[in-house]
Specification:
alpha+beta; elongated; 11 helices; single chain; Helicase, Ruva Protein, domain 3; four-stranded antiparallel β-sheet; GTP Cyclohydrolase I, Chain A, domain 1; three-stranded antiparallel β-sheet; Tetrahydropterin Synthase, Chain A
Length: 262
Amino acid sequence: MSFTAKDVAALRQKTGLGMMDCKKALTEVGGDISAAEEWLREHLKGKMEKRTERATAEGRIGIHIDNAQAVMVEVQTETDFTAKNDLFLKAVEDITNHAFGLPAGPVSATDEITKRVDDLRISTGENVNFARGEKLEGGAFGHYLHHDGKRAAIVQIEGTADADLLKGICQHIVFHDPAGVSEDDIPAAELDKVRAEAIKEAKESGKPEQIAEKIAEGKVRKHLEQSVLLYQKYVHDESQQVKAILPAGVTIKRFVRYTLGM
């Protein structure tokens, strides 16, 4: 035998697979651990493909921020038990760090990401998917990742703001789910619909045209206060809108919000 029990243990540690699978793989490749990993991946591929239709309702979100760059990814699996597994958490960290090195924009599954996902399918026995990712560049960033790893947000700003404030804004984004940063992010057709419905309702109740239009503008304003980040009441101080807590010279450029599976 060209390998030892320590080699089997090392392969088990790397793959999360059972002793017999690891021993068979090492036997087939003459004791080379790297080759054994590839052998396992190739020979278990059929089993992995059978899992791909199973629902993936659990998982984790990963975030990495450094040097005016930020990335957020979502990796899904079948059970929360697996999503809390150290191998899964390490793979999410690895995928996040890999995505950090990619160009700005939506993150697609690279060969390296696909390999890590395949490794997880082998080691966990569950279907695992790389769901999505987003890479941002420029300015400064704040972030918040909920303790369960299933909800998260990144905010991108121009200017300088305290890290705790930016975390608070991200918590607000997670829990209030704004549709955009400002009114410019809300489709004109959506606001026109709110306005038209309000005018129609006011006229049907007997209000004259001028009053109906004022009521409609109030409804549009209320719609913006509910759906636009800058106009929403800040989650940590509802006496103020989010725009009122921003330091002078700070503007919010963009945010990304993920909820697992949504």
